[in-house]
Amino acid sequence: MTAVREALVLPGLLLTVVLLGGMRLTDHLAFVPPPLFALVLAVLLLGTLIRSGALAPERLVHAARPPLAAANGGLALVALFLASAQVFHLVTPDSGLPRLAFDVFFLVLLLNTWASAPDRTRLLRSLMVIFGSAFVFKFILLAAISDPSGGRLHRMMQVLLDGVTLGTLTQQPFHPALGYLAFLTLALFLAAVALLPPSVRRRGRLEIPPGELLAEPVMGEIAEGERQH
Amino acid sequence: MTKASVTRTFTAVARIRAEASADTFTSGPQYIGSATRPEAAPAKIPRMSERTVRIGGLAGAIAYAALIGWLYLQQPQTFAQVTGGLTSAVGAYRIDDRAFEEGLRFFRNDQFVEARMAFERADPAVRDPVTQFYIAYSYYRQGWGRMYSDDELYALGLQAVDRALALAPGGRVVVEDENLGMKSAEELKAELEAGLRREMSDFNPARLLRERK
Questions:
Q1: For the whole prediction, is pTM greater than 0.80?
Q2: Residues of chain A with C-beta less than 8 angstroms from the C-beta of B43
C-alpha cells in the first residue's frame, strides 16, 4: 500500500464517513454519536474483514514497521472502527420496531458472514448488498411511509398503518438532503473498505498483490515455502 | 501451493530483493522494497517525500479528527455556529457591533423581540457572553409581571444565561450598564430560577409592590 493511500486517502475517507454518518439535518444541525450496539456491530465487521482477508491489520500496525508508518496505520484502523459504527448507525432506523429488526438483522448477518468466511471480493459484494438494502429500506421505503406531506389518502393509510403497528413502524420525517448525504457516506465507506490493505495470506496460500509493499515476515514465509518444495 | 506457483512467487521475490538492494531511497531496516508485476516499472518514492506525506497525513488526520470531536462535543446547530466556533477557537471571532448597538437601543425601549433579533444578528455563532447576557435579560424583562411571571420566557432566559456563563472566561459575566438592576449573570440566573419556582411567597400580597430590575 502506498504512503499516500495509507496516510492521506484512507484516513480522509474514513474520517469524512465519521463526520457525515452522525450528521442529522432537521430544522437545525445535530451530530449524533453512535449507540453502543453500533460499536458492537463495528467490532464484528472489523473481525469479518480481517477473517475474510479484506483487511490485514499487520500491514497497518506492526512492530516491524517504522513508527511513523505504524502511526498512520493505527489512525486508519481507529478511523475504520469509528466509521463502521457510524455507518451502521446511519442505516439503522431511529426508533420503534424497524430499529430492533435492523439491529437483529445486522447482528445475524455479520455472525453468518463471520462463520462462512467468504473471500475479500465476496465480502465486499456482500457489504454493498447489506448497506444498499438497508439504505433503500430506511431512506426510501420507511421515509415514504412516514412522509407527512402526502395527500389525504396517504395520511389515512398512515393512520391505519400506525393503528395496526401500534405506532412502532413510522419514523420521524427526514430532511430531504439527508438521503443524499447518507448515499454519499455509504459510497465513501465502501470505497474506503475496498482500499484497505488486503491480506497476502489466504487459506494456506500466499498471494502477492501487484504493486504492494511487503514486510519482512511475509518474505520469510515465502522463502520457507520454497525450501519445503 | 503448487510447485509452479512457488517458483513464480520466488522469482518475484528475487526480483523484489534485487530492486530493494538497488533502491537506496526505499531500503530501510524493515522494508524490502516494492513488489510489482514484472512488466510494471518499480515505484520509486524518494524517502523524504514519503516521510513528508506520512507526517502531513498524520497531522492532517489528527486535526480533522479533532475538528470532528469538537463538532460532536459542541453540537453547533447552524453553519454560522460552526464557523463562529472555529474562529472563536483561534481568537478571531468578533460580534457585529452595529447590530449589537441596535439591540441595546431596542432593549432600552422595551422592544424585547426586536432586541433579541438584533442581538442574534450581532452574535450569530452564539459565542459572545455579553450578548447572551442581554438576550437572557430581555427574556427576563419581557416575562416579568407584577402578579406572575411568564414561565416559558423565563425558561428561555435561563437557557441564555447558562450559555453566557458557559462562554465567559472563568464562568463570570459582569456588565456595567446603568440601566440594569442586575449586573452579573449570577444575579440574573437566581432571579429567573426564583421566577420559575412555585412557593408560598408567590401568594404574598407584598409582591405587587416589587419593581422590575
A1: no
A2: 2, 211
